Amino acid sequence: MGHLELGRPAVSNRLFRWQMTGSLKALTLHVADVEQGQIVMPNSSRLLENDQMHPAPTRPWLILAGLALGVTVTNGFARFAYGLLLPAMKSELGWNYAQAGWLNTANALGYIAGAVLTMFLIRRLSPSRLFAFGLITTTLALLATGLNAALWWQTLWRILAGIFGAMSFSTAGALAAGLFQGDPRRNALAIAILFGSGGGLGIVLAGAALPLMLDAFGPGSWPWGWIVIGATSLSFLPFGLWAASTLRMRAQSQTQPTPLPVRRMLPELAGYAGFGLGYIVYLTFLSEWMTEQAAGAGFIALIWVILGLCICISPLVWRPVLARFRTGLPLALILTCIAIGSALPVMLPGGFALLLSAVIFGLSVFMAPGAITNFTRQNLPAESWGRAISLFTVVFAVAQTLGPYGAGLVGDLFDDIGVSLLAAAGLLLIGAVAALRQKPL
Fold first, then answer.
1. Which of 3, 193, 292, 305 has the fewest CB atoms within 10 Å distance of its CB?
2. At what angle do helices 60-71 and 151-176 cross, to 10 degrees?
3. Residue 375 and residue 346: Cα distance in Å, rounded?
4. CB 195 within 8 A of CB 33
């Protein structure tokens, strides 16, 4: 994916800045890729502070591949595959839009709980153990989701998938950041590959397989979709667990919080709340909207594959913008692009508009966290990064939980989920306007 230069951190001490160019710098870059539509563990940029790892491993790229497959499970499968199965589940189970949206809201609630839980567990358990535990339990949760159609059962396992996925996802970057100690460029590249390629791969694989499976065997085969996803995750387990076992990190120490200029950050915080509210609607209901428009399974699969591939290469597109500005302009531009991608299918019905929508949305959606991290690094001293990112994470998390269920209610009100996509685009544009007002701190 290339190495991202997100700007010079606002740190006055040159010696401290030099020391920060190793693993902590890479882990803070991890936050730019981690959130990519999901939740980052609060204070995750502290994971490497005051920590000593064993000497760099001899096969770092192979280890990185194993960690990336873990992200494929906890991010690409556990977070976003539901959007591909939603049309069949809604049809077979007689759900309304609100019930369908609720399951992604439940997953987001679980992710918040898992992120907070990890914040406390990381003081007592190593990131390697948390990554392994989260990967195993997320896989089991995905398998269990296909065993019962009851809404309570689906809710339970979507929440648990969120909790367990957060444990593994939040610690993956800490592990990857130690692969190339003393080499910031390779470290940054490793983090970018981990979350760009790892998350994007999950969307590509699920998008290529699930619509075609449902078309071949009918909507009643949706439980097998979860089982196939779970079985695929199970096949990734040995590689992912081996990768984590080769890296040894101690439990993390707690550091003293640093006060933040919250009032002066309000425009950026408001913009990020708009992102959380709006982006998840597209990923939750796109397949349902396409199904209602009589799109074929092959075309739905194509759209999701393009979406995943664009997510993988998106850092290369936005790197110059993220590196240049200290204001809210990068976030505003990114939110505008996500809004355009969300609204295009409804405003210009047709195959070409859908393809263009997938490209624009995919190239932008995972870069909003990058804009936030860039803003944090360029405007605050390094000792404030963790606290600032935690604050942005909480705002994002709360907004994200409201998005799917709220969109479902709007869809039920108008009997058209396309209205929800337009409403999401409107929220994203409001967020863009707010972010545009953000000045350097």
1. 292
2. 160
3. 33
4. yes
For tokens 């998938």, what's the residue? 161
Which residues are within 8 A (CB) of 388 and not within 5 positions of it... i.e. 6 or more apart?
Answer: 260, 265, 376, 380
Closest to 139 in 3D by CA, of 160, 153, 109: 160
The arithmetic mean of pLDDT across residues 241-250, rounded, is 80
Tokens representing 228? 């196939």
Give the phi and the psi of residue 126 in degrees, each rounded to 5.
-75, 155
Name the superfamily (CATH) of residues 22-251+261-436: MFS general substrate transporter like domains (1.20.1250.20)
Judge whether residue 353 has pLDDT over 50: yes
Residue environment code for 177-213, b if the CB has 16+ CB neighbours within 10 A, otherwise e: bbbbbebbebbbbbbbbbbbbbbbbbbbbbbebbbeb
Residue 4 in contact with residue 322, Cβ under 8 Å? yes
Q: At a CB cut-off of 8 Å and minimum separation 6, what does 238 contact?
A: none
How many whole angstroms from its chain centre is CA 357? 19
Question: Cβ–Cβ contacts within 10 Å for residue 55, how many?
Answer: 7
- Model confidence at 400, pLDDT cuts 50, 70, 90, reads confident
Give Cβ neighbours of residue 407 (< 8 Å, ≥ 6 apart): 97, 101, 281, 284, 285, 417, 420, 421, 423, 424
Residues 79-117 pLDDT 10s: 889 999 999 999 999 999 998 899 988 998 998 888 788
Taking the model in full, what pTM does it have?
0.78
Nearest to 141 by CA among 151, 155, 121: 155
Give the torsion through C-alpha atoms of 139, 145, 148, 150, to 10 deg.
Answer: 150
The pair of structure tokens assigned to 364 is: 């932008």
Tell me the one-letter amino acid at 296: G
CA distance 346 to 342: 8
Asked if 366 contacts 33 with a C-beta cutoff of 8 angstroms, the reply is yes
Distance CA 256, CA 328 (A): 28
21 and 98 in contact (C-beta within 8 Å)?
A: no
Q: Which residue has the tokens 């077979």?
A: 92
DSSP H/E element including 384: none
Going by C-alpha positions, the residue among 32, 37, 38, 44 that lies closest to residue 323 is 32
User: For residues 419 and 239, what is the distance between their CA atoms, to the nearest angstrom?
Assistant: 43
